[in-house]
Design brief:
The structure is a homodimer of 369-residue chains. With 369 residues, chain A is of the alpha/beta class. Chain A is 38% helix and 20% strand. In chain A, helix 1 links the parallel strand 1 and strand 2. The radius of gyration of chain A is 20 Å and the shape is globular. The complex binds 3-isopropylmalic acid (2 copies). Chains A, B: It comes from Linnemannia schmuckeri.
């Protein structure tokens, strides 16, 4: 099992910066958590630094040390993960630590909110992507053979289970209800999404009739088998190729989007392009007992160590971490502070066309908490 | 083997409208082919109508009749395929006829040019997507089991072979050289792509180290093993998620893009969004002995039969068909006529914000041939 807090409000967070700009944005997120105003009900944070990543692999031969897993399980209530570099050539024995972490901690849903900031001049959208986070092609069951002509033939297994599809689907419908509830606090004129909450199921069952067929039927079944609970939630579907097309043409047409692992990976990068930068998009890897916040961006080796990285994705991921640990008030403070900085538009990193440093953006967010 | 033309310039084209708007846009493409000015060297067309599609399946129990395949092989030098509807529920025994056609005729590369029209106000781009067309998850090797708890678990095989990857890679590098040659006829100031030709390899080898590792190494090998031939072609790579992100942020950064089947499917819909409509984007399914032109859009049941479908994707696909059959002069005429209509911007279907009918757009193209 996972560690439960000894005192009610003590929260121990594992910090796993990993590679590249992960080492700049995770400290930024930590600073924001530490700057939250203290109240009776707010958490008291302790932080533990934990190793992982491709650079760690290069030095020590292991990308996700056993100690990191043990301490996460034994001492932490949640974690923040930075980013991991991808080897540019095949490296024997290396395997992505974030994929392993999701699997080992059974973090079955990757929750990725992508929203435009009002007045940003960008297309207006406010969608939440729920990415199934444990299977699909990410099970990494691969093999290679040699054919009769001496040529190589490789295979990978894509797994879709009723169990995992249902968990992801439930998360999607529950989040749709939750978002609807939160929206009711916002004046109607300021709401981007006006209709009933909606879940869009992404699949490619016109080709993958068995695997994506099972995915589609199972997620549909979540609504059909809980008709009363989810009566207020609409449901529709999109083939993954059409999804990418429609997302760019009418991103305002989506509320909650639920997708198998790889489609979710691709769609969320696409959605990030719509809001102006991957440096803005957070995620939470959510399980029943543990949450790992993780910016959607990568390790960006080209700008690492130069104070150019946008810390907002990591800061928002810290917000998601709090939200999914039950501290929604503190999470909302973080989101509002970030939105304030973005709306003002004065202090921004180069990815948004500005000249501010990682530290300057972080300080600006902290000032508004 | 495939039919060879009895007289040198006689070209027999199989027309397979299939479902929905396929029945409007294929006749449009035929009209354009028939309206090409006749010269000594230009082809004399004969057309054969052939059946396929989901509606055909519903009536006759087969989506791609044996007769269609036999006549394509025995009587045709090429074909035009319309679009196929996707069943909204699982339908026993149904399997996509276009996927089957690609496989049976060994049409190993799907060539998808996506270019903006100068002065359209859209982002400027001019890319060519080469999609591997025979394997990846499209081999449809799927199975379903029941686990110890009575829950379903489904698997699909993803196949990546050295053989197919090399053929797709060769097509990409050859097309990069070809495009470079064609560009040299365009005044430098009007060229969208200014640098050396470039091939971008799309993969996800940070997760799929064996299958996408083989894909990446094999496509790289095409250049490395033909160093002299491809010395003038640059090569880089993008993870599929980053590809979708970058394509939307800087589409001008891409020349030729080569991708495994499913990634190519997704990327080309994304690229279509950038040029304003799926109704503009053509493709050619290319094999060593046969070509099938096919608009990238679907069967659009919501607008079928209303003269609202944009015929341009199908008309451009007829151009691609001619180009890959060796009639590049006639192909160029079609492209120029289409570009003329688009640049003028007066006659356009509703997807482009106009009110013209399928027939009006077709007539406008024919007038400019
Ligand atoms: C680094 C990589 C393995 C990872 C993924 O594909 O899940 C990343 O792209 C992400 O989205 O978190
Ligand atoms: C209809 C479908 C099977 C097809 C595909 O996925 O290849 C279509 O999306 C396409 O792009 O031609």
């Amino acid at each position: 099992g996972f560690a439960t807090a000894a005192q009610s409000n003590k929260v121990t967070i594992g910090l796993i910066p990993a590679d590249g700009i992960g080492r700049e944005v995770i400290p930024a997120a930590r600073q924001v958590l530490e700057s939250l105003p203290k109240s009776e009900s707010s958490p008291r944070f302790e932080f533990i630094h934990l190793d992982a990543g491709f650079e760690h692999f290069q030095k020590h031969g292991v990308a996700l040390p056993e100690e990191t897993l043990t301490r996460l399980r034994g001492e932490c209530q949640g974690a923040l993960f930075g980013a991991v570099s991808s080897p540019s050539h095949k490296v024997a024995g290396y395997s992505s630590p974030i994929v392993a972490l999701r699997k080992h901690l059974d973090l079955y849903a990757n929750v990725r909110p992508v929203a435009s900031v009002a007045g940003s001049g960008q297309k207006q959208l406010d969608m939440l992507i729920i990415r199934e986070n444990t299977e699909c092609l990410y099970i990494k069951q691969e093999r290679i053979e040699t054919d009769a002509n001496g040529l190589k033939v490789a295979y990978a297994d894509r797994k879709i289970s009723e169990y995992a599809s249902r968990r992801a689907g439930q998360m999607a419908f529950n989040m749709a209800l939750m978002r609807d509830k939160l929206r009711s606090n916002v004046p109607a004129s300021e709401r981007l999404w006006q209709g009933k909450p909606k879940v869009t199921i992404v699949h490619k069952s016109n080709v993958l009739s068995i695997t994506d067929g099972l995915w589609r039927e199972t997620v549909r079944g979540v609504k059909e088998n809980n008709a009363a609970l989810y009566a207020g939630v609409d449901m529709d579907e999109q083939l993954v190729d059409s999804m990418v097309y429609r997302m760019f043409r009418e991103p305002e047409a989506f509320d909650v989007v639920v997708a198998p692992n790889l489609y979710g990976d691709i769609i969320s990068d696409g959605a990030a392009a719509l809001v102006g930068s991957l440096g803005l998009v957070p995620s939470a890897n959510v399980g029943d007992n543990f949450v790992v916040g993780e910016p959607v961006h990568g390790s960006a080796p080209d700008i690492a160590g130069q104070q150019k990285a946008n810390p907002i994705a990591a800061i928002r991921s810290a917000g998601l971490l709090l939200e999914h640990m039950g501290y929604s008030g503190d999470a909302a403070r973080i989101y509002q502070a970030v939105d304030g900085v973005l709306r003002e538009g004065l202090i921004k990193t180069p990815d948004l066309g500005g000249k501010s440093t990682t530290q300057e953006v972080t300080d600006a967010v902290c000032k508004r908490l």
